[in-house]
Write a structure and sequence with these properties.
Elements lengths: L2 H30 L12 E3 L6 E3 L4 E4 L2 E4 L18 E8 L1 H4 L9 H11 L3 E6 L7 H15 L3 E6 L7 H10 L3 H5 L2 H7 L3 H13 L1 H15 L6 H20 L3 E6 L3 H5 L6 H12 L4 E2 L2 H8 L19 H16 L1
Parallel strand pairs: 5-6, 5-7, 7-8, 8-9
Antiparallel strand pairs: 1-2, 3-4
Helix pairs in contact: 3-14, 4-10, 5-9
């Protein structure tokens, strides 16, 4: 056989073997992700004209970005839950982004569902609605309550902000340290999103972030010192006040209370010193509106430092989203606030 065709045959066999190996690995890695087995990802979102964001598809079942989705007729996470409006019924509307939805964990592990379980274990006739949606922010939180508050008539609105919902040093540092990497810049965003549908890519991304964790944290501390004195956009905070006032109006109409908290970021938990300005700024804003503010950072730091090595409270390779144990801390703190 001439040399060139022989070489082409070997390359073809090698390429075919590689494709088979990658496909087999993809199937194996998919089996390790939480929830029922799925061969491919399905997009759970529909565009919303209300606020140029997205909503979950009603009655959706499937996997997306490593998370198993089950939504009800309203697009809320979990099986159908209908309020009875009984005199002793406690109705809690949990509003927030992917950290409220519960990215990366099964539905029973997200903090709204853990909160409901704790309330019922304590003898409460409670129904907890999970209005969390990926990428949510103040404008979206208000719109969700515009759409659903009159139907649900909540007694409590528990609103969970994330550190990237408003300008602050932690957000700026995160963008500089993680989003400015040469490897990330080499891959176009559209291609990264396409790869994100692959369980193998998600696993490799997780391993990559974990391998760089110590270096990234050191870079973050150095960058934080450089950006600590950067001015804060007051206009953004005034807009956030408007959103919270509108949410408060929903609560007042239904005789409900609003509780606000800020999800802890990984640096605030595991580094010796942490940037607390976003916590204090949000606490001050809530105080001016008469809304209770729940501090999570102290609880997360205490839980993480209760063991050696520190207890992991976040998903592997993730800086924002708690794991089931971390969501349990959120549920405990919100429960304590409700009892008060």
């Amino acid at each position: 056989m001439p040399r060139l065709p022989r070489l082409a045959k070997r390359l073809g066999l090698s390429l075919g073997s590689l494709v088979v190996a990658v496909a087999a690995t993809e199937l194996v890695v998919r089996a390790t992700e939480p929830g029922p087995y799925s061969l491919f990802d399905r997009n759970p979102y529909v565009d919303s004209e209300v606020d140029d964001h997205v909503r979950h598809r009603p009655d959706f079942v499937g996997r997306w970005d490593g998370t198993w989705y089950v939504t009800d007729r309203r697009g809320f996470r979990g099986p159908e839950r209908e309020p009875t409006f009984a005199e002793d019924e406690l109705r809690v509307a949990c509003v927030g982004d992917s950290c409220t939805f519960g990215k990366g964990v099964l539905e029973e592990a997200c903090w709204p569902r853990q909160l409901e379980a704790r309330l019922r274990e304590g003898g409460r006739n409670a129904v907890v609605f999970n209005l969390g949606i990926n990428g949510g922010r103040g404008k979206v939180y208000r719109a969700l309550l515009d759409e659903h508050a009159d139907e649900l008539k909540p007694n409590v609105i528990a609103l969970g902000y994330n550190i990237n919902d408003f300008p602050n040093t932690i957000k700026a540092v995160d963008e500089r340290v993680y989003k400015d990497r040469s490897l990330r810049r080499l891959i176009p965003e559209g291609l990264r999103n396409a790869f994100g549908r692959l369980a193998l890519y998600r696993k490799l991304r997780q391993v990559y972030y974990d391998a760089r964790k110590e270096r990234d944290w050191a870079a973050a501390e150095a960058t934080a010192r450089e950006t600590a004195d950067e001015p804060i956009d007051s206009a953004v905070w005034e807009k956030e006040r408007d959103y919270l006032e509108a949410i408060g109006a929903h609560a007042e109409r239904h005789g409900a209370r609003v509780g606000v908290f800020l999800f802890s970021y990984v640096w605030q938990v595991f580094l010796e010193s942490y940037y607390a300005t976003p916590i204090e700024r949000l606490r001050e804003l809530c105080g001016s509106l008469g809304m209770p503010f729940v501090d999570l950072a102290t609880e997360f730091r205490a839980a993480a430092r209760s063991t050696e090595p520190p207890t992991q409270l976040f998903l592997a390779g993730d800086r924002y989203h708690p794991n089931a144990l971390g969501y349990g801390i959120v549920a405990d703190r919100v429960l304590a606030a409700i009892e008060r």
